[in-house]
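We modelled the chain as a single entity of 305 amino acids. Its sequence is:
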Amino acid sequence: MTLNVSPLTLGTSGLGRGTEPGSAEEAAAVDIAVDLLSSSHAFVDTSNNYSGGRAEAVIGLAIAQIGPDATTRVISKVDAEPETGVFDRDRVLRSFDETASRLGVERLPLLHLHDPYTVTFEEAMGPGGAVEGLIELRESGRVDNIGVAAAPIPLMARYVATGVFDAVLIHNRFTAVDQSAAPVFADAHERGMTVFNAAPFGAGILATGPREGAIYDYRPATPELQEWVGRLERVCGAHGVSLAAVALHFSLRSSLVDSTVVGVSSPGRRAQLDELAATPIPDEVWSELDALSPAPSPIDDSDRA
């Protein structure tokens, strides 16, 4: 089934973190979820393990407030058993049941295999493996589409090449700094898959700019990357646009990307994101960005197949 995505998909990896059921903090998180589900964006993206399950629980409360129209706006992911790392067919079915219960839904438009790092590719794809569970869910009609969501490019290339999946999500590998996901995204499109590009800010430095403690791909940015991003920030400033706006539009403007996933877990963040998306970027920025490249990406996926 074709996914009618919008240019932005709203991520929820930090939503509800540390909240207790019935608390004021939970109510505030539910308000954020209501805002996300009431926005013009097609989908809110979550996962079984986000905030220890609290993200889905909070979204479920928001769905209950909004009503049935919101039930088709959420996509989620199955995750390995937190305690044991087990990630087989049975775990996938349990993970989906947990998700459906928290959200208060019976079916989802898309369900991803999420970070399958506790099993080998062969185990995931083999008899009784995680992918078998996903296919069962799709064939039963409990999910409309199945996808794979992770990061290492060699591994993701193998999953995409199976032809089993309807969608792919890769994070931190298609940004102004690192475009290593481009061949996988191109292959996915040729197969008719929907492509989600997550973390266009590199999980940090492309939103914050170079500063002490800046991160890229969840680890400290190298001095070389800090210096390169500083040069890009000066290009942005010379054209009157922010680094964050350029980083976001790098993904939005790409023909390889169907939807860009950006995390939104604090009040006002969704409105700020919409502002960035509406910012016009002068064409000269892209030619000057090309002149700066290649960036000193700290990512090395060469041995992660």
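As a brief sanity check on the tokenised model: The beta strands are 8-11, 44-45, 74-78, 111-114, 146-150, 167-171, 194-198, 215-216, 219-220, 259-263. The two ends are 29 Å apart (CA to CA).
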